[in-house]
Specification:
Elements: H1 7-16, H2 19-25, H3 28-32, H4 36-55, H5 61-88, H6 98-128
Transmembrane segments: 7-29, 35-58, 65-87, 99-122
Keywords: Membrane, Transmembrane, Transmembrane helix
């Protein structure tokens, strides 16, 4: 499977990233203090994604973390669609706007590509040493 992304790891990492919107829905990010809380959680998730790709010696970390970003974006849209009517009394969020759906998916895919690129660079550096 040369060059393939590690799909099960991508799904797990994408699901792990749901900690950020869940913390937001529970009001934890606001209590910790915005915008620093969101930035800190995003950095922590990124470090975990990079670390997992390196630790598991993923053959193609760029593709795997791209998939993780896409999985996260899709799951975040679904969670928002389920939670907003319960929490706010009406459907809100990206699901109500096709452009927002594309934006969420693309933004998180880019996040995945950036973390994948960093993981690949770390792997290359480790192989040289």
């Amino acid at each position: 499977m040369k060059g393939n992304g590690h799909l099960s790891l991508a799904i797990g990492l994408g699901a792990l990233a749901l900690i950020r919107p869940l913390m937001n829905m529970l009001g934890l990010l606001e209590r910790i203090g915005q915008p620093m809380a969101s930035i800190s959680v995003t950095i922590l998730i990124s470090v975990i994604w990079i670390g997992a790709a390196v630790l598991f010696r993923v053959e193609n970390p760029l593709k795997t973390l791209l998939y993780a970003g896409i999985v996260y974006g899709g799951l975040a849209i679904i969670i928002s669609a389920i939670a907003s009517p319960i929490l706010e009394g009406e459907l809100q969020g990206p699901i109500t706007n096709p452009f927002a759906i594309v934006s969420v998916i693309v933004t998180n895919a880019v996040w995945g590509v950036i973390t994948g690129w960093i993981a690949a660079a770390v792997q290359r550096t480790m192989r040289r040493n």
